[in-house]
Design brief:
The complex is a heterodimer of chains A (about 90) and B (about 325). Chain A is an all-alpha fold. Chain A is built from five helices and no strands. In chain A, about 80% of the residues lie in helices and about 0% in strands. Chain A is elongated and about 60 Å long. By secondary structure, chain B is α/β, with parallel strands linked by helices. In chain B, the strands form two sheets. An eight-stranded mixed β-sheet of chain B has the order 3-4-2-5-1-8-9-10, sandwiched between helices. Chain B is elongated. At the A-B interface, helix 1, helix 3 and helix 4 of A face helix 3, helix 4, helix 5, helix 6 and helix 7 of B. Chain A: Pfam families: DUF7990.
């Protein structure tokens, strides 16, 4: 009985934690996306930072490029994501 | 002797700029010979992709300093090789990092980067930085540059690169801030991709991107510090007594002032000096006189040296020393 209650509260709090950082994580992803996009600017025709700098940063950009790629894929449903975040159904 | 051509604080850097074909290479070679004869350990570097420094010295040069005479060393940068070596190093680095990211097909991205606009200018800047960082090995470093347009772009780069780096550091700081905030609630976060997982860096000291940004910023700030320091750097413009060359030099003068790069001397090369009047080139002589007059008015605070047109092309060490003597001023 006591164990069950503990498990319930653990579940309750982790869900609470996940909810509380939802917006932050969204913002984080947006920033990471922008960061990767700025570095990749020359591909879409916007001015890009020094090429040497871009090349030096690339090896460390696994996560950001991954986020950018996913973001580009979900581009057509960006309102969907925002709507889900605000629980508009 | 002109003091802005000799070392004051550590080593001295001289850039020779000017329109194509006005005699930058000859001028810079001449100055290098003269200064080395005075006992300064001098390195002359050609950063012009169309090299002809070797032709002036009548020796074959490569991308390592080669001794020409006592105290005098010369080299020609090989841009093609530099860019290739740079990309190769990068590719290896990437293969290691992205081996689990083949889904994204990154090779294509880097194919394009190779032809990215401005890569030559950046490679040139990178090469200049490397030479300047080992600058203490020399008393005087002379750069023989490509025609004005490209050179001005290269000299402007540190300023532009610094602005970019500062902006990127700002965004990066925000990202790390967000990551730290999330970490405070959820604890350490892992990023999983293709079965591999690693920790998401959230502090500035452990984030490789931030570290790289800061390292780059420091390197660029160093170059900018050297080329804007009037105790270390002088720019010498070479021109012919013609209107077009004058206009270009004027623009260079304005641009360099904007970037706070010290501009000290204008060398007017190939000035025709005749003992008796020759009616057939009277118009040309008249035009030349006019240009020389205007130079005096246009460049305030900049010294002016005229080098006459010689009967034969000044090549070989003896000739060079004679011309160099005129520019260095004895």
């Amino acid at each position: 009985m006591f164990e069950n209650l503990k498990a319930f509260f653990r579940g309750f709090f982790s869900a609470f934690k996940a909810r509380s950082t939802e917006y932050l994580e969204f913002e984080e992803r947006e920033l990471e996306n922008v960061f990767a996009l700025v570095l990749m600017g020359s591909f879409v025709g916007i001015p890009s930072p020094p090429t040497t700098l871009v090349m030096r940063l690339m090896p460390h950009m696994v996560r950001e490029i991954y986020v950018m790629q996913r973001r580009a894929g979900e581009m057509d449903d960006i309102f969907g994501e925002i709507a889900a975040m605000f629980e508009i159904t | 002797m002109r003091e802005y051509l000799t070392p004051k604080e550590g080593f001295r850097v001289l850039f020779f700029i000017g329109k194509g074909g006005v005699g930058k290479t000859t001028g810079s070679a001449a100055v290098s010979v003269t200064l080395s004869k005075k006992g300064y350990k001098t390195l002359i570097v050609s950063i012009d992709p169309a090299h002809n420094l070797g032709d002036v010295f009548e020796v074959k040069l490569n991308d390592k300093p080669k001794q020409i005479a006592e105290n005098l060393y010369a080299m020609e940068l090989d841009m093609e090789k530099l860019i290739k070596a740079y990309l190769k190093h990068l590719e290896e680095n990437l293969k290691h990092m992205y081996r689990y990211l083949t889904v994204i097909n990154l090779e294509k991205y880097f194919e394009v980067l190779r032809f990215s606009p401005g890569i030559e200018e950046y490679a040139t800047l990178e090469a200049i930085r490397e030479i300047l960082q080992r600058g203490e090995e020399w008393d005087i470093i002379i750069f023989d540059t490509p025609p004005t347009g490209l050179t001005l772009r290269v000299l402007a780069l540190p300023e532009i690169a610094l602005i970019w780096t500062k902006k990127l550091i700002e965004i990066r700081k925000k990202i790390l801030e967000k990551r730290r905030a999330i970490e405070n609630i959820q604890g350490e976060r892992k990023f999983v991709i293709e079965g591999e997982e690693y920790k998401l860096p959230s502090r500035e000291e452990e984030d490789p991107v931030m570290k790289e940004l800061k390292r780059y910023k420091a390197e660029i700030a160093f170059v900018r510090g050297v080329i804007t320091n009037s105790k270390k750097t002088s720019v010498i413009a070479v021109m012919n007594p013609e209107m077009l060359a004058l206009y270009e030099t004027e623009r260079a003068y304005e641009a360099l002032r904007k970037f706070k790069i010290p501009f000290n001397l204008v060398v007017v090369n190939k000035v025709i000096e005749l003992e008796e009047e020759v009616p057939r080139i009277r118009v040309k002589i008249e035009a030349q006189r006019k240009v020389l007059e205007e130079i005096g008015e246009k460049f305030k605070g900049v010294e002016l040296v005229t080098v006459p047109m010689f009967e034969e092309e000044p090549r070989g060490l003896e000739w060079l020393e004679k011309v160099g003597g005129l520019i260095v001023g004895d």
